[in-house]
């Protein structure tokens, strides 16, 4: 039996009373009819005119105070950076890029809040995860309602996505040639133009849909499986979205437009470096380690430092938009400098990181020389490129000096037999 809410019960009572008053020609029949009509046209049976002070502070005053404090203490902007994951100058630069987007100027009777306030709330939500990105917490932090915080986030996401073509694009022919040289300097010769890996974006809660099981990943969480390709500077140059978490990285890679239209993205001889989850082919070289106690050359950790902190929505369009916006923000400020500055000579590596990289490269060269002069039974430094039947992997192995080591191991195994 269906449940009848209090409003429906009250409407049925007023209707019976009004019908009885009309039938008996009672003098107060018009009042009963008006009461019935007013209740029928109202959404709620009882609703106060004012709900009181749900939020202790004014949202405009709160956000202005945060920005004023950052401008006053420009030498110490730690609090501002923890809130929005950007420095004040980076925040101003991003605001200049999106403030003229039509999404902020709809032209309706009610004017929107200035883009600065909407961007502040959206960046706070995109920059936190877990309880920090809870809508109730966001609304109380800034003094806005939950619906307003959600709407402002959608506006900012749409505006940031409009920057996707200039912030995240596949490198052209000349840029790919420069990437080949840059990766060769890092010890990865043979035409490498990027590093590919899968990114698991977990959901905040189980999707409310019939195919929710498809989003259950091998990490025992519901989420999206996103494919990302980074260049030598850790910038994302390609991303494939809209795959459920149950899809393997190899499945997403083969179904992506990057491989479906490989002739438009690669010059003959160019490839992507990935881990053992990706299939071997002319455009992908998966690389794994054999000996856990030996020194190995590993793929650059371009994607290991990629941290997308967000609260996922069950709605696919909203979730995909938030992921795309986070990827774009990652590209804009990966160098920890002002992206809108015309400064293309900025080095994203610190002195300590560069010194460590040089030490690793020297150790790799030393082990490589020791391995070439050793006997048949000596293991040395070994890197196995999976799927050794394709010409791309053979060529890369020869240029890395690894082919003789692998063949020497094969002869050693035959001798032991």
From TrEMBL:
Belongs to the HARBI1 family. It comes from the Eukaryota. Keywords: Hydrolase, Metal-binding, Nuclease, Nucleus. InterPro entries: HARBI1-like, HARBI1_dom. It comes from Cryptococcus amylolentus CBS 6273. PANTHER family: GH03217P-RELATED (PTHR22930:SF85), PTHR22930. This is DDE Tnp4 domain-containing protein. GO terms for molecular function: hydrolase activity; metal ion binding; nuclease activity. Its cofactor is a divalent metal cation. It is found in: Nucleus. Residues 196-289 form the DDE Tnp4 domain. GO terms for cellular component: nucleus. The keyword Metal-binding applies.
